[in-house]
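pls ignore typos typing on phone
alpha-D-galactopyranose + seq
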Amino acid sequence: MKFRTFAFALLYTVCAGTLQAQKYEGLADTPPMGWNSWNKFACNIDEQLIRGIADAMVESGLRDAGYIYLNLDDCWHGQRDSLGFIQPDPVRFPSGMKALADYIHSKGLKMGIYSDAGRTTCGGRPGSYGHEYQDALQYAKWGVDYLKYDWCATEDINAKGAYTLMRDALRAAGRPIYFSMCEWGTAKPWEWAADVAHSWRTTGDIFNCFDCVDQHPGWAAYGVLQILDMQEGLRKYAGPGHWNDPDMLEVGNGQTVNEDRAHFSMWCMLAAPLILGNDIRNMSAETQEIILNKEVIAINQDKTGIQGLRFLREDGLEYWFKPLTDGDWAFCILNRTTEAKSCTIDWQRFNLYDEVSKRFTDFDSKTYRLRNLWTKKEEGDTRKGRTLTISGHDVVLYRLTPVKK
Ligand code: GLA
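k done
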């Protein structure tokens, strides 16, 4: 009897373990990098644009710098067919999604698509509600590699249930697909979504400005600084395979070069997904220099996978640290004000212990070499303090590397 009970319990455990779906592992050891159509093109997308973007991702060097996902956002949809399978808009995507995915793959890129857990998307197109398994199958059949899953028209659906359902549907469809939750942080996904998705939006939408709020009745969109402030307290929830997502980049969409540099630097310090949102077919030299700076990207893509921390706010300046591999740190000073500011760095003031990485900067007994990642110059080491000037809405970003004794 005892043996039968034991055998039954064992069988149950094995079966339950096998049946329980899991997200695909190994797709997001570092934050995803790519491009998405929404910030620049909103609903004005078609296959010609997407093919042009694919070409530009290769020609501009973006693909080789790590930006591999080409993600279609809202409004690619047509209707469901008689069996309920979603089809693309036949006017905008006459060649179909499989052909588009093949083209994207032929360029060495991966393809992303967008849907919504509710009955309709935010742009009023068909949502996946009631069609989750069917949609996942369709995406897998087309060769999709990334799904952004939005939260409009969800009425009183439970967020954890809805996102877990889609995770299971993606798993059942059998193709490894990066799962990007876009639930705006309403149900605190950082507390429960590490096993559900590869990243989760932490806030409402980004607005293309550095320091403002775009307020509407019932909802708002937020500038770069506002989104940055909303990341407070979330860093301990992120790590390899599961990232906080403070929304897509607005770099190259009209803010000043200083602001673009600060925005990009801070998203790197946050270990955020780096999803571009500008027209990469036509970029200024300044924009290219920012988004293609490999040493800055390396801060974001560092294998340690630990989000940066804000150590100090003082006189309109913020001092951020991010632990990196091999004992390195990224150190970023952000000027939130519109005026240039000077500050004197006394390294001993930054003797900090980071609870998340369990690392200590230890400027008393360690010396670090300083490399300025935007000027690309070596700037001595931390044995001596230094005085710096940071332009308005700009950053200074260093990589600190311990000097071997
Ligand atoms: C929501 C999302 C955005 C974008 C739009 C599309 O607002 O948060 O990122 O996908 O929907 O309609």
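The chain has a mean pLDDT of 96. The chain has two domains: 2-300, 309-402. more later
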